[in-house]
Amino acid sequence: MMGGLAKGLAVIESFSADRPRQSIAQVAAATGLDRATARRCLLTLAQGGYAEYDGKFFTLAPRILRLGTACLATMPLPRVVQPMLDDLSDRIGQSTSVSVLDGDEIVYVARAAQLRVMSISLMPGSRLPAYCTSMGRVLLAGLPEAEARAILGPGPLPARSPRTLTDPEAVMATLARVRADGHALIDQEVELGLRSMAVPLFNARGALVAALNVGLAAGSEPMAELAARFGPPLRATQADLRALLS
Amino acid sequence: MMGGLAKGLAVIESFSADRPRQSIAQVAAATGLDRATARRCLLTLAQGGYAEYDGKFFTLAPRILRLGTACLATMPLPRVVQPMLDDLSDRIGQSTSVSVLDGDEIVYVARAAQLRVMSISLMPGSRLPAYCTSMGRVLLAGLPEAEARAILGPGPLPARSPRTLTDPEAVMATLARVRADGHALIDQEVELGLRSMAVPLFNARGALVAALNVGLAAGSEPMAELAARFGPPLRATQADLRALLS
DNA sequence: CGGTAGTGTGCGATTTACGAACAAATATCG
DNA sequence: CGATATTTGTTCGTAAATCGCACACTACCG
User: How far apart (Å, rounded) are the C-alpha atoms in residues A60 and A9?
Assistant: First the structure.
């Protein structure tokens, strides 16, 4: 309906860690927009304080963060779960997180970090693919089979580690298991040395709204023991949050 | 130049923690746009997956976070400082943060939390006013006097606690002190029970690019001791980062 | 010097935004 | 309870904006 707005948002999204500084032509190429249009978008962003221009390259300004945090702030989820996440994390001595599904990715909305075991640093707003993460499996398991299959696509899925399941049907099979168990276990599929366990978070009406997980360094213990150790505290937090989530 | 984009961004910013769900008319009132225009913006956002519409109210969708995180990802700052922040936080056993200045607010770009002492939860993208925070004082002290005074405005500044300095000239006086000391100390000005100390972060060319702070619960010790205890580790990290920042 | 890549600037055709008007829902009040 | 106000959502015609193309200009290189 409003082309200009959609184009401008696409321009913002064209910036990433790989391309923090872009020229007009680069943005035009990345977004498929005409150079003149990209220029107008970028100048508008610069005028609004959302971007900076040194005459050659454009950079996003901190003001852009207002857009994202407006969303985080509007979600009651982070505010409600953060205290319980901190508490849970303290009790079990491991990092815990809450995420929601956005397309084929999970988006972290809250996190209580303990020890750094991952190579990348996760924070609210960070994204990981759904198919190879414990929270992603939990969230996919809550969808109708056809929808989950559509999100996974025809495959093969990118192997983030040697242990990643790359066949969509293999992932679909784990989803059935997740539904039966009420939790998902991931053993070094997203990154070698990292294991995690996730449970779904339901609201008071019983709808699946998010996932809660614990991540820890891979050890020698069998995965079954992991479920025995972290299942109870996770389920306790899950139950506590059930009444608090709308 | 591109009115539609600017209006759409204003619509996104009109959402906040206080107003997570807004009707068309509410958005129109908050942004000063015509109802028809606000409607087009919102429908465009919904069509792009940035917002959700239940026929009555609009809500921002997680996809919006892509815009903000696109910016965080483009900033080399978070990636560079996060490991050193974690390390520093472990060594001194307190929460540490890095922020940059955006207008009259500081924006957190990285954070290593230890114990929760503040009533609000801070995360990358969070904002606080500059005038009453240690990092804000450091960043204001790096500006020309006239600019700092312009940002502070005519006053009086809102008193976030009984100890908040509300007179812009009083704040300006502390800035001179900050320049002389090379650090800023804040004693419960942003919130009762919370103290903090900040140092500036310079890049390799000597330009002020951010501020680094440590926050801790207020105790009985004099503020001077705080400077003696945390000054050395803060300055060590400050020096380590100097070469890494461009 | 010619080629390449990038930027800035008109200029029609098209699209969009504005404002008012209409329809529907909600609130107010006798 | 029913009728009138008031607010909200939607539609529509017109005026003004943008879009995409084309061309001129600069800088950089072989």
Answer: 12
Query: What is the rounded CA–CA span in Å between residue B130 and residue B104?
Result: 6
In angstroms, the separation between the Cα of residue B216 and the nearest Cα of chain A is: 17
User: Which tokens go with A75?
Assistant: 């979600």
| Phi, psi for B185 (deg, rounded to 5) | -120, 135
Report whether A72 contacts A109 (CB < 8 A). yes
Residue A167 to residues A73, A106, A158, A196, A211, Cα–Cα distance (Å): 37, 19, 9, 20, 23
Among A5, A27, A40, A52, the strongest candidate for a mutation testing the B interface, having the largest count of B CBs within 10 A, is A5
Low-confidence ranges of chain B (pLDDT < 50): none
Partner-chain contact B70 A12, CB within 8 Å: yes
- Going by the DSSP 8-state scheme, the letter that residue A157 receives in this structure is P
* Residue the block writes with tokens 């483009």: B74
Closest CA to B108 of B145, B62, B66, B75: B75
Say what the pLDDT of residue B182 is: 94
**How many angstroms separate the Cα of B91 from the Cα of each of B96, B108, B221?**
11, 21, 20
Asked if B80 and B210 count as a contact pair (C-beta separation under 8 A), the reply is no
Instruction: Spell out which residues of chain A touch residue B30, defining contact as CB-CB under 8 Å.
Output: none
Contact B72 A65 (CB under 8 A): yes
Structural element, H or E, at residue B176: helix B168-181
3-state secondary structure of A91: helix
Report, in angstroms and rounded to the nearest whole number, the Rg of chain A calculated over CA atoms. 20
Domains of chain A, each with CATH number or no CATH: 3-67 (1.10.10.10), 75-244 (3.30.450.40)
- The tokens 């606690």 sit on which residue? B161
Q: What is the pLDDT of residues B180-208, one digit of tens each?
A: 999 999 999 999 989 999 999 998 888 89
